[in-house]
Please model this.
Amino acid sequence: MSNVSSPVISLQEFHALKKRCGRQVGEKYTCFVAVKNDDVTRTVVNSVVGTVDLCVRHPLHGETYPAEPGNTPFYSRIYQPDQPKFGYLTNVCVAKYARRQGIASNMLLLAIDAARLDGAESIYIHVHKDNLPARRLYDHVGFKMVDMDGARQSSDLCLLSFNSMH
Model:
């Protein structure tokens, strides 16, 4: 989880999401946004208290698990449509002042339901090994550490999965 605290960060994330959403055929991107629901008048960007991004797709050629962000080999941009779809969650963010109120849990559960509706059999997320609050959150929601059978994982990230066929 990261901090959503300034309009500049929110605008940067908005533009990055637009770029991701227009990038690949065969990938469906959805961004879930939690906003304040009070009587105070503010801009849309200043109303945002949390976000989570979801990508649903078939695995790429040679891919067993989703690659760490930015580590997908160029040659593997060919989808395997005969393999089950999966969901991949990124950018789970809640503003510091809004944490510990169930916002992240609710956004994750909504994203999991959306991934199921789009045909994903499993949902994955990478988390920094030292981010204990995020790891506790993901464990509470039902994510489990992936045993990658000796496959190389980065020293600071671990892959978690949620099997949506429970």
User: Anything to note?
Assistant: Helices lie at 7-21, 44-47, 103-117, 132-141. The two ends are 26 Å apart (CA to CA). Confidence is low (pLDDT under 50) at residues 1-8.
